[in-house]
Automatic annotation (TrEMBL):
Gene3D superfamilies recorded: 3.30.420.40
Carbohydrate kinase FGGY N-terminal domain residues: 4-256
GO MF assignments: kinase activity
Name of the protein: Carbohydrate kinase
Database matches in InterPro entries: ATPase_NBD, Carb_kinase_FGGY, FGGY_C, FGGY_Carb_Kinase, FGGY_N
A GO BP annotation: carbohydrate metabolic process
Species assigned in the record: Sutterella seckii
Domain Carbohydrate kinase FGGY C-terminal: 268-456
Entry superkingdom: Bacteria
Protein family (similarity comment): Belongs to the FGGY kinase family.
Keywords, alphabetical: Kinase, Transferase
Length: 515
């Protein structure tokens, strides 16, 4: 019988489940939204069981669709998922959560990060490629839980990421069985040796994290168990389907965009807008304090990449559509906004948006989200273009750093949801002075997971070759020299405004929020 493969992507805004056939054509899919809560300023929490329940519900609906179209769920050869690389939850011995799930949007650890970085320890950059701690690192969340969560102190046995949590529950595993793949491991930011693919006892001791709380490290395609009876009943899938260790979302998105070699650029236009470059290992110039870059291990052996980010990049777009335009749940409205914004000149007539809705970082740590320089002539389309350009300005800073380190960025692949917006792609091409390429690959990380499912179960022998067959170019955006120059001038003005002119104002605004 022809084989089928199931994959899921546990992202910040949704859980996507898809089934692909042996030719990696999509057979059925379902997506369900997640929810974020904001219990205190700078805090962002989620219930990790929302990921589990969304996944189970979507799997059940996909299974029903398979039967409706005459496909047998018994032909599903493997299940693999990916999830957020910068986010963890504490679990007990039965693999049940005892803490909230905290991810990269949360900034509660900022003071702890600053205190740790003040020690100027070289081991971080030497072993992880990350010269400094960041408020988005799971290592810092673990420190916070150990100090502030009585529930974890009493019952916690492991820290896990969201995709491994779901995969553990699908397989009916216990807390002691917790695992993480070597790519998602590098999402911890600190606490491991990135090239040896193991936890670092010295780093964990410096962090005050007992190694007993760390999950075992596996290859992404390792089998961790089979679909358990409980989930089989709830989804309609046969018990025993192999469950794989899974991967990080960014790693899978890069592979799904055809990034197999070093020195290729990728814009992961998701909730956390991420600008990545692939490398052969640590580049000392990029692993220096102050760069703001993160270094990670890829899904495949001996693959690595740096990335910079706008934490609320994609989330800022959703915030504007839902909270400002009042079109919550209306995904089509993004298209209407961009159609109107396309008529607005580059630079949004001087209107600026600062996308720091969950706080700034680095030199802009006190910055907050705001629109600047508006007049009575401006409308939501001007504001929308300013939101799109805001992420581009932060990308320009990252691109400048990459280029100074000798990484050429003449061609950048764009992936995830934002890649479907032609206006945003053209804006990025002009702002970054580079060719922007979009591939016809609607499955993204989910498709890549299914390719690994085939690899793990003998359906294919070469992941790169299989992905190359299903990836095809369907959009190219070339920079316009006049607009490249305009954005560069605007960028220099924007940088001076935020880092110098408005520094005192941001400090005052922070104090006003606390009154």
């Amino acid at each position: 019988m022809a084989k089928l493969y199931m994959g899921f992507d546990a992202g910040t805004q949704s859980v996507k489940v898809g089934v692909y056939d042996e030719n990696f054509e999509l057979v059925a899919s379902r997506s369900l939204p997640t929810e974020l809560s904001y219990p205190h300023p700078g805090w962002v929490e989620m219930n990790v069981d929302t990921y589990l329940e969304n996944c189970i519900t979507a799997m059940a609906e996909v299974t029903s669709e398979l039967r409706r179209i005459g496909r047998d769920p018994k032909d599903i050869a493997a299940i693999m998922g990916d999830g957020i690389i910068c986010g963890i939850v504490g679990i007990d011995e039965n693999a049940r959560p005892v803490t909230p799930y905290i991810n990269y949007l949360d900034s509660r650890t900022t003071e702890d990060v600053e205190a740790l970085n003040a020690k100027k320890l070289s081991i971080w950059g030497r072993e992880t490629g990350n010269a400094e701690a960041s408020p988005m690192f799971p290592a810092m969340f673990a420190r916070w839980f150990l100090r502030n969560s009585p529930e974890f102190s009493e019952r916690g046995v492991k820290f896990v990421h969201n995709a491994p949590y779901v995969l553990m529950r699908l397989a009916g595993l216990k807390g002691k069985d917790a695992f993480i793949d070597w790519g998602a491991m590098s999402g911890w930011g600190l606490g491991y040796d990135v090239q040896a693919k193991k936890w670092s006892s010295e780093q964990l001791e410096l962090l005050g994290i007992d190694e007993k709380y760390m999950p075992r490290i596996l290859k992404p395609w390792d089998k961790v168990g089979g679909l358990c009876e409980e989930i089989s009943v709830r989804t309609g899938l046969p018990a025993g389907i192999p469950i794989l260790a899974g991967a990080g979302d960014t790693m899978q998105s890069m592979l799904g965009s055809g990034v197999f070699e070093a020195h290729q650029g990728v814009d992961v236009a998701g909730t956390c807008a991420m600008f990545c470059v692939s490398t052969r290992g640590i580049i000392p110039e990029l692993s220096q304090p102050g760069t703001g870059l993160i270094f990670n291990s890829g899904t495949l052996p001996d693959t690595y990449f740096y990335w910079g980010f706008v934490r609320t990049g994609g989330l800022a777009l959703r915030w504007f559509k839902d909270n400002v335009c009042r079109h919550e749940g209306d995904g089509a409205y993004y298209g209407e906004l961009s159609a109107g914004a396309e008529k607005i000149p580059a630079g949004s007539r001087g209107v600026l948006f600062l996308p720091y809705l969950t706080g700034g970082y680095g030199e802009e740590k006190e910055a907050s989200g705001c629109f600047l320089n508006m007049t009575m002539d401006d409308n939501q389309f001007v504001m929308w273009r300013a939101v799109l350009e805001a992420i581009g300005y932060d990308y320009m800073e990252l691109a400048d750093g990459y280029r100074r380190a000798g990484v050429a960025l003449n061609r950048i692949t764009v992936t995830e949801g934002g890649s479907r917006d032609p206006l945003w792609n053209q804006i990025k091409s002009n702002m970054l002075d580079a060719e922007v390429v979009r591939f016809k690959n609607p499955g993204g990380a989910v498709l890549t997971n299914c390719v690994f499912g085939a690899y793990a179960t003998g359906g294919i022998t070469d992941v790169k070759a299989a992905l190359s067959k299903v990836i095809s170019e369907n959009g190219v955006y070339e920079p316009v020299p006049e607009l490249v120059s305009r954005y560069r001038e605007l960028f220099e003005n924007r940088k001076a405004l935020v880092r110098s002119d408005m520094k005192a104002a941001f400090s005052r605004l922070v104090r006003m929020r606390e009154m």
